[in-house]
Specification:
The chain is α+β, with helices and mostly antiparallel strands. The protein has one domain. Strands 1, 2, 3, 4 and 5 form a five-stranded antiparallel β-sheet that branches. The longest helix has 13 residues. The N terminus is likely disordered.
Length: 152
Amino acid sequence: MARCTGPQSFGPRAVASAGLVMLLAACIVIPLPQGEGVVSEGREIAPGDAGTIALGRMSRPELVAALGEPAAIWEERRVLIYAWDRVQLKLLWIIAGGMRAAGGIVDVPTHHLLLVQLDDHDVVTRAERCTRPMHEGFGDFLRTWADGRRCS
């Protein structure tokens, strides 16, 4: 019977080395809450500012004068999009194995939106301040909102 030798052989030393590496390998993730957090992207529209939108009476130019230019406009569905991200959680991660290690800090943003829908005469018909779930894409969220789904 032939015996396997060479690089493909897994002798006692190879198994012991692999076991030792697995015992020494570690992955640590530590959540770092940030309290109220900071706006990391975009310009936040405060709830009080969003509350001043007069449905059925406010025109697009009045809205833009009050809140500034939107981050995006979906012309086909007549939706103005004000978007910002707020970081309220950071993750400290460390991966170690053998004689090496790596780590870093990652922001975990919450995606906020103020969505405003206009009629054919550029008058506000609907406005809602939303938080987009992390598992839902921006396009899908916006499409279902424009079709009538509420944020809450």
